[in-house]
């Protein structure tokens, strides 16, 4: 599988809206999907006016999903919450991700997409040596994909859930940049 990533633009908002309404995505992303809501939640990143990157993931040239990537220091409230559970290096980044269509789930595409994004992050952000991801403990598919992509669980504890119906228990995962062989 070949993965490429490009910044989300407003032209892809209808695609994203469709993905966000799919039950396997809506359960964990809990987003409104009106044009106004998409503009509110994704417009600033699409314009480059927000430090987060909203990236469409393409597998073999076809849209597969969305990955959000950001430096944790750019979101101090979230960083502070995460630091109650684990050490977070100053240059650490985080990702969030979704696979858009149900037919693409449970086939290893999420794991492969995450691996490709990790490799791309090491290339795009040379000063970043760590990616830290907090996942709702109930989202088994998500944390298993992280594990298969090489992330290690480093902590567990309470964080504000994205979806108010979820338990606050989150698992925290980490992957570090590979060190060159000596």
UniProtKB/TrEMBL annotation:
Keyword annotations: Antibiotic resistance, Transferase
Domain of life (superkingdom): Bacteria
Protein's UniProt keywords contain Cell membrane: no
Any GO MF annotation of the entry: N-acyltransferase activity
BP GO annotations: response to antibiotic
Protein's UniProt name: Acetyltransferase
Signal peptide segment: none
InterPro entries in alphabetical order: Acyl_CoA_acyltransferase, GNAT_dom
PROSITE patterns in the cross-refs: GNAT (PS51186)
């Amino acid at each position: 599988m070949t993965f490429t990533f490009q910044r989300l633009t407003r032209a892809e908002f209808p695609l994203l809206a469709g993905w966000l309404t799919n039950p396997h995505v809506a359960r964990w992303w809990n987003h409104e999907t009106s044009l106004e809501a998409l503009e509110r939640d994704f417009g600033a990143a699409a314009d480059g006016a927000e430090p987060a990157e909203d990236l469409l993931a393409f597998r073999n040239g076809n849209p597969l999903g969305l990955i959000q990537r950001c430096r944790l220091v750019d979101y101090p409230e979230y960083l502070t919450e995460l630091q109650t559970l684990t050490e977070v290096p100053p240059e650490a980044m985080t990702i969030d991700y979704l696979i858009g269509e149900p037919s693409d789930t449970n086939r290893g595409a999420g794991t492969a997409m995450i691996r490709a994004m990790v490799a791309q992050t090491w290339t795009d952000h040379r000063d970043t040596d760590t990616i830290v991801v907090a996942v709702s403990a109930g989202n088994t598919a998500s944390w298993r994909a992280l594990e298969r992509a090489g992330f290690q669980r480093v902590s567990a504890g309470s964080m504000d859930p994205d979806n108010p119906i979820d338990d606050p228990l989150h698992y925290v995962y980490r992957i570090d940049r590979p060190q060159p062989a000596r």
